[in-house]
């Protein structure tokens, strides 16, 4: 990549533009900048999740994910550049399989609730979905590698699964299980039993 930041307040963005990693300038509402911002917000939300008590293996995985998200943002900041590797997507697939294998099947939709860490994982999941939509939108206008879109898609799934794992870990004593949506269909089925 080009230059490392040595000064934060450059005032070069006062005109409503921002610099990309290749030195070009684009409007701050450019699709590429929007996607980069959503990825940055996702990384920040995972940073908040990391401030919570977590199982050691989940913490280790989330730290790796933060570094990979930084790579993804770097890739988005330089049109035509590849920084996120295919093995990052594979790592998420493996984590999904590992954590999902220990969870019971879902009986109904679940609410983004339970322990604080689980709720924060759900917030990160929704930001990951938005970041994915931003990358898909960008890819309709400009060439974008497949790995960023795939990575964000898998990450949102993984964050859903991790929320369920964190509810069961119950490290704050407020969880223990999924918080199920109380649908009319489920209520009728329970009344018939």
Automatic annotation (TrEMBL):
GO annotation, biological process: cobalamin biosynthetic process
Subunit field text: Homotrimer.
InterPro entries: CblAdoTrfase-like (IPR016030), CblAdoTrfase-like_sf (IPR036451), PduO-typ (IPR029499)
Catalytic reaction list: 2 cob(II)alamin + AH2 + 2 ATP = 2 adenosylcob(III)alamin + 2 triphosphate + A + 2 H(+)
Signal peptide: none
Name of the protein in its database record: Cobalamin adenosyltransferase
Record keywords: ATP-binding, Cobalamin biosynthesis, Nucleotide-binding, Transferase
Residue stretches of biased makeup (Polar residues): 1-10
């Amino acid at each position: 990549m080009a230059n490392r930041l040595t000064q934060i307040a450059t005032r070069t963005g006062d005109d409503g533009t921002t610099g990309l990693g290749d030195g070009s300038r684009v409007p701050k509402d450019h699709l590429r900048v929007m996607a980069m911002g959503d990825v940055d917000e996702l990384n920040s939300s995972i940073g908040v999740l990391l401030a919570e008590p977590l199982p050691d293996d989940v913490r280790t995985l989330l730290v790796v994910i933060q570094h990979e998200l930084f790579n993804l943002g770097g890739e988005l900041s330089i049109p035509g550049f590849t920084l996120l590797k295919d093995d990052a997507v594979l790592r998420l697939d493996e984590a999904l399989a590992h954590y999902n294998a220990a969870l019971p099947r879902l009986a109904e939709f679940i609410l983004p609730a339970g322990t604080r860490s689980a709720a924060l994982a759900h917030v990160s999941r929704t930001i990951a979905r938005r970041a994915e939509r931003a990358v898909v939108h960008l890819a309709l206008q400009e060439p974008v590698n497949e790995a960023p879109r795939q990575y964000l898609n898998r990450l949102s799934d993984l964050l859903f699964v991790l929320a369920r794992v964190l509810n069961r870990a119950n490290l704050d004593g407020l969880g223990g299980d999924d918080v199920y949506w109380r649908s009319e269909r489920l209520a009728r089925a329970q009344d018939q039993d």
